[in-house]
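Model it.
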Amino acid sequence: MKVILAEHAGFCFGVKKAVDTVYEQIKSDENIYTFGPIIHNEEVVKDLESKGVKVINSKDELDDVKSGKIIIRAHGIPKETEEDINNRDIECIDSTCPFVKRIHKIAFEESSKGNTIVITGNPKHPEVEGIVSWAGKKAYVIENVEDIEKMGISMDDNITIVSQTTFNHKKFEEIVEIFKSKGYNINIVNTICNATNERQKEAEEIAAKVDAMIVIGGTNSSNTRKLYEICKNNCKYTYFVQTADDLPEGFPEGVDIVGITAGASTPKNIIEEVQTHVRTGTVI
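Modeled.
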């Protein structure tokens, strides 16, 4: 089986920084907590839990933490939650991706000027929830062009448009064009990180020239889901897997070339394992 592996696959800068921080802190003798899963990859989270790291999933659970260190996940957390943690007598280590922190700063500064903040992204994603908390009272989240009409944004508003770092670049451009065509007064700050853009472009190119495509990542990973959507639109036989155990027992007849890409939260060892299984034909 011939395999084409995407050059831009696996941990991005922000994810690697966050994960490395947790593993480094494990070496201490203190209790280690992460607020929310440090990244959206179940295998990584399970490995950290096996080493004693505990995940805090809500502000209510903070009351049970009496000592140790709390590490803020790569996606960031709401402003109010971060302030709550910092007001407690416990060390807080901020591992929010620097690119996400930049969006917090932009949203806060622009909303302080009285501007309306429009965020393109998934409203239920923790990164977006965090951005909204920094964007003041006049904030809207738009996931699709259809959402624009539902928002009821005043034509008199000065609008600053930002984006979830892992949002689909083409969708972002479509949404921006709708705002332009309607005559809104907009300030566009494309905050989709370069790593996301590179992955999406590369995945689209590979998917268009292979017989089957494998996308590796956690089921809760937003950027992996978007890679899957892009690949599926360009390659009929596209598979979403978390590990090599999820690979199909066999590919359809005529599949000779398989492409592989992976989300930004996928460890290198999992990518290598999937690649080996496919290349050697052990899944057939």
